[in-house]
């Protein structure tokens, strides 16, 4: 039997001591947590093994839109923390991408190589459908367009589908393209030209997005250094580009002599130690939630490192899947993704004018749009 839990406000996890020891529970109605989410849904289907969490940060600009991550989290608390951060990031990303969508995200707890099945994906689709269009799902780490086709057999609110089923296909194409545009805008500010030709770029993670970014960088004449925990991913890049340099791990890459460091793996790549070790003058990558904690953006600025906010430059993928909802047109979606260059440049200008790091300027711009447009959407239409 499927079980469906929905809470309207999410807050920090607290410990409750019982006679049986310490049990970790979630204080969903506490007022101390500033990142209030509209809705968090816990989904479980025992027979298929589904354990999923769907988080909707806000719907100020429209239905929430964000991918489904399939990942073997070490705990349910880790999965909850991740989905909340990702949902908030999607709200800001969609706002700055100019989309009429709020922020949402979902995580499925498990190893996609072992636990993914038709039954599990269809059970998940039932939960997405139960939200009645408040949340549109798509691909993310561990899920692919083919998986979305399965989910869509149980839900109307699925995008990022295969071309054969009327979708746009792999959203990593425009994700990488958008990151490249953000990198060009960064290079223009730092070096006076939007070209990466002759620049040394380190790409951490050459999976779905990273390997496509390498293609764009090589076409532009950049020197590329890569690392990945998956040897097969590195082999794929080297097969096409034998001239690409490979280093042992992320620590070696971050300490390398680079012009640009591009985090394209999981989040939290920029912590205190990383910032201290970085030799690059630009950070611009596809990974979500790159700042490990608040204050890292200030450390980057103090060291003279230009940070292109992740949710700005990696929005090409969500632009692609959002376009699919109304009937996909690659030329139209690519043109919109190209505007990431202008948006990134605008954020850098605001940051300079207001004397704040680019991450702060980006947040302010996104919050302004959510507030202004959200207010307009509250006007009663009398229907």
UniProtKB/TrEMBL annotation:
Keywords: NAD, Oxidoreductase. PROSITE patterns: GLFV_DEHYDROGENASE. Its EC number is 1.4.1.23. Residues 169-378 form the Glutamate/phenylalanine/leucine/valine/L-tryptophan dehydrogenase C-terminal domain. The keyword Oxidoreductase applies. One of its GO terms (molecular function) is valine dehydrogenase (NAD+) activity. SUPFAM superfamilies: Aminoacid dehydrogenase-like, N-terminal domain, NAD(P)-binding Rossmann-fold domains. Pfam families: ELFV_dehydrog (PF00208), ELFV_dehydrog_N (PF02812). It is an enzyme of class 1 (oxidoreductase). PANTHER family: LEUCINE DEHYDROGENASE, VALINE DEHYDROGENASE. Belongs to the Glu/Leu/Phe/Val dehydrogenases family. This is Valine dehydrogenase. It comes from Nonomuraea coxensis DSM 45129. The gene is vdh5.
